[in-house]
Amino acid sequence: MNLAIGFAALTVVATTLGGIVALRSRDQFHLVLGLSAGLLLGLVGFDLLPEVFELNTSTFGRVPAVSIAIVGGFLFLHVLERSFGSHEPAESDYGHDHEHHNIAGTLGAVAMGGHVFLDGVGLGVAFQVSNSLGFAVFIAVVVHAFSDGLNTVSLLVKSGHWTKRSKWLLAVDAFARLSGAALGTYLALNDSLIALYLALFSGFIIYIATSHILPEAHSRHPSRWTLAATGTGILIMWAVVAFSV
Fold first, then answer.
1. Of 57, 32, 17, 48, which Cα lies nearest the Cα of 230?
2. Contact, 161 vs 99, CB < 8 A?
């Protein structure tokens, strides 16, 4: 089996686990979320960004093209999620603006399915560069997969749309990475285009970590311990990158 598709299949387990966690408990995982954000930020800062700047040195308007792609990825995901009302903190007040949540909940979960497909593409593209970069991106994707499973279910529950049929939506969210990984693996891209997509993917990851996971982790818990968990995640990724070279 293709490595990217095989690793993408493993993220299905993480997405499903996140959904199960959301159904059984909403108040015990702030430290896990803090650690997850640290892992994502460390992956981008210590592995992805150095790689993309090495693969593509072209400029546009005197600015590195990959820098533009990073900002573009951040803004693209921001606009996508604002448009569909997704990625609101899972611990937000269930009674606030209930009518809005009824409209946005299912659409938000569908929007998540769209961007996890892009996660899969990023995984496939990373394995085109090297197995080591592919594995590093897999770490980011599996962390994101857990968070997405948690939030997909949380959005549906708080919007009043959680039913047995909703489990199929969670399955679509989980398996979207498989199709994305298959596409990313077989895209015929040169090093410069691979770097641009991975830079775009880096923008996605930065947005997810800073605008979604960290605000949720800090929403109802002492920031000191959550911040410590985030720092630990960054240090772990630093060690992983340092000792894998």
1. 32
2. no
With beta carbons less than 8 A apart as the criterion, state whether 199 and 69 touch: yes
Residues 128, 185: Cα–Cα separation, whole Å: 7
Residue 84 amino acid letter: F
Question: Which DSSP symbol is given to 28?
Answer: S
Q: Interior CA angle at 147 toward 144 and 151, to 5°?
A: 135
Which tokens in the block code for residue 44? 């981008």
The pLDDT score that the predictor gives to residue 152 is 63
Q: CA 195, CA 197: separation in Å to the nearest integer?
A: 6
Dmax (CA) for the chain in angstroms is 53
Say which DSSP state 164 is in: T
C-alpha pair distances (Å), 61 with each of 64, 65, 67: 8, 9, 11
Q: DSSP letter string over 46-115?
A: IIIHHHHHHH---EETTEEHHHHHHHHHHHHHHHHHHHHT----TTS-TTTTHHHHHHHHHHHHHHHHHH
For 77-124, the pLDDT digits (tens) are: 888 777 765 554 444 444 444 443 443 445 555 556 666 787 888 888
Give the pLDDT score at 90: 46
Q: At a CB cut-off of 8 Å and minimum separation 6, what does 178 contact?
A: 5, 8, 9, 12, 120
Three-state SS at 135: helix
The CA-CA-CA angle for residues 128, 150, 170, to 5°, reads 75
Identity of the residue numbered 17: L
